[in-house]
Design goal:
Signal recognition particle alu RNA binding heterodimer, srp9/1; 47% helix; single chain; 22% strand; alpha/beta
Length: 145
Amino acid sequence: MQSITIEQLRAASDAGGVAGVTLKGQGGSFLVQIFTRSGSAALLAKARSSEPRRFGNPIAALNVLRGVGITVGQFDASEWNPDEKEESPGKRGRAEAMRKAHQAAAYSEWLAAEIQDAIDDPRPSIPHDEVMAGMEADIAALTTG
């Protein structure tokens, strides 16, 4: 069976090429089957993959379909088994990834501001050799202390 992304499904739906959809339970998740007017069938796939997009909650799948403009379809729960639902980090794992990304962005902003402050500092620069000699003198004073 072919796969189709959300963008492709939206384009096909807008062009009138979608004959119907079925929200099909399979194991512990739901798949979206798309039937085209040309007679072919496809599964809704992940954005950058041909792997089928699996929904743990049928309401999430319905929200995606409604967002594409598809509001009528069929439902098949004959092969659905809620006991087979896959455990995944889900939103908590995604939330942690987003938190880390925000922390990294905040650190980058802080570092850029510190660098700009150093560039804008009107005090004269001190040569590297002079700074190192001063540090070596400080270290020597602490070790012989």
